[in-house]
Amino acid sequence: MFLLVLFGSGMFVFGCMMVAKPDAFAKGITEFSNKPWFHLFEIVSRLTLGVLLLLFSEQTSYPLVMQVIGGVLCFVGLFLIVIGSERHRNFASLTAKIGRYFIPIGIVAQLCGLGLVYLGFSSSDTPF
User: Fold this and answer.
1) Which of 21, 54, 95, 127 is deepest in the core (most CB within 10 A)?
2) Distance from C-alpha of 73 to C-alpha of 97, rounded to nearest angstrom
3) In angstroms, rounded to a whole number, what is the distance separating the alpha carbons of residues 38 and 107?
């Protein structure tokens, strides 16, 4: 499942960035959250990926895991709509202040990313 491999690879790369340069990662969050399209991008990307994971979950080796991940992504996308752009930006700015605490979060992101890549390669052949 190409989508899982891509998502997992991205998560692994972001995890590596968090571990290697946590302060630069925090600065990147602040800069990204100041983009005018930040809020819309965060909503659309989460809802799109979540819906795709839900739709194609039965074609994977672990459909329940994919349904949970897809459901969480959809919930977060809808939650972002409810809280609005300003609160979302404030949360991103607050998150960026954790600095060095991105290191353990990055290790978890690396492990989860590798797990998703594994799931993607162990899934049946689907375009997503």
Assistant:
1) 54
2) 24
3) 25
**Do 61 and 124 form a contact (C-beta atoms < 8 A)?**
yes
- CA geometry: angle 24, 78, 33, nearest 5 deg: 25
Do 53 and 67 form a contact (C-beta atoms < 8 A)? yes
Q: Are 83 and 27 in contact (CB under 8 A)?
A: no
User: d(Cα 103, Cα 107) in Å, to the nearest integer?
Assistant: 6
Residue with tokens 């600095």, as numbered in its chain: 99
Whole-model pTM? 0.85
pLDDT, averaged per 10 consecutive residues of the chain (128 residues), comes to 87 96 93 94 96 90 91 97 95 91 96 91 62
The first and second tokens of residue 43, run together, are 């909503």
d(CA 28, CA 43): 18
Strands of the chain, DSSP E = none
Q: Are 65 and 4 in contact (CB under 8 A)?
A: no
Do 29 and 92 touch, CB atoms closer than 8 A? yes
